[in-house]
Amino acid sequence: MEYRRLGHAGLKLSALSFGSWITFGTSLRDRGARDLLAQAYDHGINFFDSAEVYLGGEAERMLGRAIKSLGWPRDAYCISSKVLFGTGDNHDPARASRPTQQGLSRKHIVEACDQALARFGVDYLDIYLCHRPDPDMSIAEIAWTMHTLVQQGKILYWGTSEWPAADVEALIRFADRHHLVPPQLEQPQYNLYHRERVEQEYRALTEQHGLGLTTWSPLASGVLAGRHDDGVAAGSRMNAEGFGWLRDFVFEGSEADMIAASRRLQPIADELGASRAQLAIAWALRNPQVTSVILGASSSAQLADNLGALDVLGKLDEEQVQRIERAFGASAAPR
């Protein structure tokens, strides 16, 4: 495993990490989750990502139960939670969280942190993220609340996920002005279909402020792995109960074009003796702005294949990278 520093922070995370979005509680139950976590840890992964909203908090409980049963020493791994949506179903208004059970108020941030600690069964979170911007948010309130949680020892590092760069900049400047612990990372989507935010919008944040990036969806829910070449696969997360929205989220009305672009990766992968998934993950890892790429495997074979991306990374040369970029044409923003 390769380990990378989280921007200018002292924390070192594995270049590949493991997330619990969608898979935990759907395609994975307790035993399957435990086995995959053990496999990831045995291969050097030390960062495990979750959020309060993932399956109404059950994903965090599953992670906590698995970690406890595996007996890992607390100083050998890092876990993260994200706050905003609450534990209600934000796709079903009848089961949505109440106003004080969501958002980025001091009340919800503090209570959600305590609830996450209880679900994980730990004394502190290594990383705590504001899951998306809140239309009613106060930069000052968020920065002071996160600083206080750090001082209390409940969190070690904090940051944002999918925030506009201008808002992250405002957080950093407020924290600097008031001598507070600033945000140290952003967690954006990053893959061959979604590049602009990481490569352009966040460039100043990573270069000037030393923000680390832990990126998610390197395979665009399996599209870049070729799992949907003949249409959305029957066992896909896009067909999981309660996730009917995911197909629209992933394809954004461009299903045929996205699948065609993914297919154009196959000859390059074949030359490297790699799978398409390994090639796509290696491409994301190649970006020096990226601290860790979060994987979302649902089987041991899938995780083993994804872990092979580190070997492919060492084989990728500039000519092959240019061919990958050309394969995506207008879908890919220039570096």
Features:
single chain; 335 residues; two-stranded antiparallel sheet; 14 helices; globular
Overview of the structural elements:
By secondary structure, the protein is an alpha/beta fold. 41% of the residues lie in helices and 13% in strands. It is built from 14 helices and ten strands. The chain has helices at residues 30-42, 58-70, 106-120, 139-151, 165-177, 196-201, 203-208, 245-251, 255-263, 266-272, 276-285, 300-307, 309-313, 318-328; strands at residues 3-5, 12-14, 16-19, 47-49, 78-83, 125-130, 155-160, 185-186, 212-215, 290-295. The protein has an eight-stranded parallel β-barrel, surrounded by four helices. A two-stranded antiparallel sheet has the order 1-2. β7, α5 and β8 (185-186) form a beta-alpha-beta unit. The longest helix has 15 residues, at 106-120. The two termini are 26 Å apart. Keywords: NADP, Oxidoreductase. This is Aldo/keto reductase. Residues 16-326 form the NADP-dependent oxidoreductase domain. Belongs to the shaker potassium channel beta subunit family. It comes from Bordetella genomosp. 1.
